[in-house]
Design a protein that fits this description.
By secondary structure, the protein is of the alpha+beta class. The protein has three domains: about 1-30; about 30-45 and about 160-240, Protein of unknown function (DUF541), domain 1 (Translation Initiation Factor IF3, 2-Layer Sandwich), CATH 3.30.110; about 50-155, Alpha-Beta Plaits (2-Layer Sandwich), CATH 3.30.70. It has helices spanning about 1-25, 65-85, 130-140, 145, 165-190; strands at about 35-45, 50-60, 90-95, 95-105, 110-130, 150-155, 155-160, 195-200, 205-210, 225-240. Strand 4 and strand 5 form a beta hairpin. The protein starts with a helix and ends with a strand. The relative contact order is 0.21.
């Protein structure tokens, strides 16, 4: 009985000792204490690249007729954009897509699917650095519909061609901000800031300038606004003395 009690007592003391080391070992590392901070940097900038697309189509009972009508429309679409000042190097026509069309017809209380002809369609993409000019033309493109062309216009997308340089500059500023914050914390606690021990880059976010867009854990990449705001965070750990 006495041996068993001594055995249990040894286990209890060992458990308490282990708990003490675990609880205190992660609060104070052998090499000293740390300050963990998150630095942030942001900048507003204007897009310098625009991409816009549209499509047009024709339908006919005969495949050949649908294609020929579409071909005639392509010439009209091309001439229209040329007249608006679009350069040949800025527009690309996609391949022609031909598909069979069907429709449901009700007869004697029942529905049956019948062949309704062929639909020929083609897309056009415009890529340019002339932001304002292309955006204006995109808004006017419904004039093609007034000319008898079944044209569907997409929404312009805005990009920035020097994004990599912008990101690197923001990371540098965010890291400097983290160091500055850590220095102020160390000063307030009567400590001196030591060397950087680790640093983690946060998510790179691009939102519309002055827009109330929600941030995403995977990052936001706004393409609908001409003017944008880029943000990045850097989480850093510094040793203190």
């Amino acid at each position: 009985m006495i041996k068993n009690n001594i055995h249990y007592l040894i286990l209890a003391v060992a458990g308490i000792t282990a708990a003490w080391f675990i609880g205190n070992g992660f609060k104070r590392k052998p090499s000293g204490e740390y300050i963990s901070v998150t630095g942030m940097a942001e900048v507003n900038f204007a897009s310098d690249d625009i991409r816009w697309s549209g499509s047009f189509s024709r339908s006919s009972q005969e495949m050949k007729d649908a294609y020929q009508s579409l071909k005639a429309d392509k010439d009209k679409v091309y001439q229209y954009f040329k007249s608006k000042g679009i350069h040949d190097s800025e527009m690309v026509f996609g391949t022609v897509n031909l598909e069979k069309q069907y429709e449901d017809i009700r007869s004697d209380g029942n529905y049956r699917t019948v062949f309704a002809g062929y639909k020929a369609s083609q897309g056009i993409k415009i890529h340019s650095h002339r932001i304002d000019a292309i955006e204006s033309i995109a808004k006017e493109s419904m004039e093609l519909v007034e000319n008898g062309i079944e044209f569907n216009a997409g929404t312009p997308e805005f990009y920035y061609t020097r994004l990599s340089e912008l990101k690197l500059e923001l990371i540098r500023k965010a890291a400097a901000d983290a160091s500055s914050r850590a220095g102020k914390i160390a000063e307030a606690s009567n400590s001196s800031l030591g060397s950087l021990k680790s640093s983690d880059l946060g998510v790179f976010q691009i939102t519309g300038e002055n827009d109330n867009e929600e941030y995403s854990w995977g990052g936001v990449f706004n393409t609908s606004s001409k003017r944008k705001t880029a943000r990045v965070t850097v989480s850093s750990n510094f040793a203190t003395h």
